[in-house]
Amino acid sequence: MLKVIDLDKSYNRQKQSLKAVSFTAKPGEVTAIIGPSGAGKTTILRSVNQLIKDDAGQILLDDEDIRQANKSDLRRIRHHIGMIFQNYNLIGPLTALENVLHGRLGAKSTFAGMLGLYSATEKNEAAKLLQDVGLADFALQRCDQLSGGQQQRVGIARALMQHPKMILCDEPIASLDPKSTKLVMDILRELAQSKQLIILINLHQLDIAQTYADHIVGINQGTIVFEGPERALTPEKLQAIYRQPETKAVTADAN
Ligand SMILES: Nc1ncnc2c1ncn2[C@@H]1O[C@H](COP(=O)(O)OP(=O)(O)OP(=O)(O)O)[C@@H](O)[C@H]1O
Question: What tens digit of pLDDT does each residue of 198-234 get?
Fold first, then answer.
């Protein structure tokens, strides 16, 4: 279970980007973070695996506070957190299989990783994962020759190669067409259930969150304004989530 408690983050003195952010994400569930542009969705995801340093709060993954971890603990914890990105972050000239094997890098010595020393078991596992995401026939194809949807599925297989407890997905479908979006979201939802993973996903598309998420966290201007199941998202709650900051009215009838 992931528990984020009272998380604060300011990038600069003018503005607090996260204000006492608290929510939970459970194994076996897709948890979607929704909210308008600039609300703080990416900042939450980056804080959760400590890619950025936040200011205060707790981030408990199975009761271990990621914020308090020393360097070697953080390396160990991060190894069990897969990441999936909007732009896939694959190595284009390498094959799908090689990219998936890179998911093991965190578990290897730098030397073995640099030399690309993977065991037969690891290669078999990578091939099986590609099969699971429907890409068995593309294992030896360069990733820069794959479609966006195929690349994102390689990204999912790479994350699974880490044997993760949790997968963080930052706008994973923002660049995909509706068919690829459905494929990727179906896979993520199935994985959450079958492998009892925590899947935490930032989404711009409300309809996708409503279709696929078991649990929704709504954020507006750095503050959590909703947490609950999709069925609890009333029009009022949606208004609170997507409310735009008030701007000073321009008075037309100044005379
Ligand atoms: N590196 C940074 N330096 C300063 N301010 C930042 C930085 N990154 C984000 N911010 C600010 O923090 C706030 C939250 O940004 P964040 O990117 O987390 O929002 P978001 O909800 O992910 O937005 P989007 O949906 O557009 O990706 C915004 O006001 C943004 O301008």
Answer: 999 999 999 999 999 999 999 999 999 999 999 999 9
70 CA → ligand 1 middle, Å? 26
d(CA 156, CA 189) in angstroms, rounded, equals 12
pTM (two decimals):
0.92
The pLDDT tens digits for 3-26 are 999 999 999 988 999 999 999 999
Choice from 10, 11, 34 to test ligand 1 binding pocket (greatest atom count within 8 A of CB): 11
Domains of the chain (ranges; CATH) run: 2-80+164-242 (3.40.50.300), 89-158 (no CATH)
The ipTM, to two decimals, is 0.97
Closest C-alpha residue for ligand 1 atom 4: 11
41 Cα: distance to centroid of ligand 1 (angstroms) = 8
Q: How many residues does the chain have?
A: 255
Residue nearest atom 14 of ligand 1, based on CA coordinates: 40
Q: What is the pLDDT of residues 48-84, one digit of tens each?
A: 999 999 999 999 999 999 999 999 999 999 999 999 9
- Going by their DSSP bridges, the two strands 29-34 and 18-25 should be labelled as unpaired
Residues with CB under 6 A from ligand 1: 11-12, 17, 35, 37-43, 204
DSSP state letters, 148-208? HHHHHHHHHHHHHTT--SEEEEESTTTT--HHHHHHHHHHHHHHHHHTT-EEEEEES-HHH
Of ligand 1's listed atoms, the one at least distance from the Cα of 35 is 21
